[in-house]
Design a protein that fits this description.
By secondary structure, this protein is mainly β. It has strands spanning 3-7, 10-12, 18-25, 34-39, 46-51, 58-60, 68-73, 78-83, 92-98, 103-104, 108-112. Strands 2, 4, 5, 6, 9, 10 and 11 form a 7-stranded mixed beta sheet that branches.
């Protein structure tokens, strides 16, 4: 079955960096576009970034453009989200999503605070 496992979250100070990872299994990862979403307390889950089956296609939500980078390693069945210059408003649970199967990971908590 489709499985997505996120990791890499944690507590970081404003201006800091984190790299999230999402390891996929149960499907042909190299043939699947991937997305990252996030959900802050009391709000709806919102799209953050997308990547096509190669790095040629990448899209970002406006508030993270220039700070976040989505990438993938098809040999490792992993999609990444490099997050730089983090802000308190980036605090959320971050989820990996595969649109082809409408499947979510369990999420990883990112907290940006001094």
């Amino acid at each position: 079955q489709v499985q997505l496992v996120e990791s890499g979250g944690g507590l970081v100070q404003p201006g800091g960096s984190l790299r999230l990872s999402c390891v996929a299994s149960g499907f042909t990862f190299s043939s699947s576009a991937m997305r990252w979403y996030r959900q802050a307390p009391g709000t709806e889950r919102k799209w953050v970034a997308s990547i096509g089956i190669t790095d040629d296609y990448r899209m970002y939500e406006d508030s993270v453009k220039g700070r976040f980078t989505i990438s993938r390693d098809n040999a490792e069945n992993t999609v990444y989200l490099q997050m730089n210059t983090l802000k308190p408003e980036d605090t959320a649970v971050y989820y990996c999503y595969v649109p082809r199967f409408s499947s979510w990971g369990q999420g990883t908590q990112v907290t940006v605070s001094s």
